[in-house]
Amino acid sequence: MRKSLIIPLFAALLAYAYFDIKDESISAPNAWSTGVGNTIQQAFVNELSDIQVQGKGVVVRILPDDLEGSRHQKFILKLSGGPSLLVAHNIDLSRRLEGLAKGDVVEFNGEYEWNSQGGVLHWTHDDPDNRHVGGWLKYKGMEYH
Fold this sequence. Notes:
five-stranded mixed beta barrel; 2 helices; CATH 2.40.50.200; alpha+beta; globular
């Protein structure tokens, strides 16, 4: 009798593990919620894009400007406890963050686009056609939009 219960019990446990268990340890850490609520964390975990987000991070890398089409100043922010966020700041529509260096803190408001490395932030400027929510960057007491 005991052996006849082991196989169905084992099968039930496997089915439960396969269909129902979610490993919370693979989610982005709670410390990565830099916007209102857990917007960025939720967008990253759920692979969402086109989400307006706000927060701040520390510059960990300055990248060369993207000069194809609209010009963008590019840099990577490390958010508290989470993956990195690539910032693509349109310098045809807004001023460049002059003197930006590794270790500087930048606050942001823009549109989040998911990718597996943490995401991309763009629309950190006003929309000249007023069709999109305006964004901004704050750096050393100055606001760029």
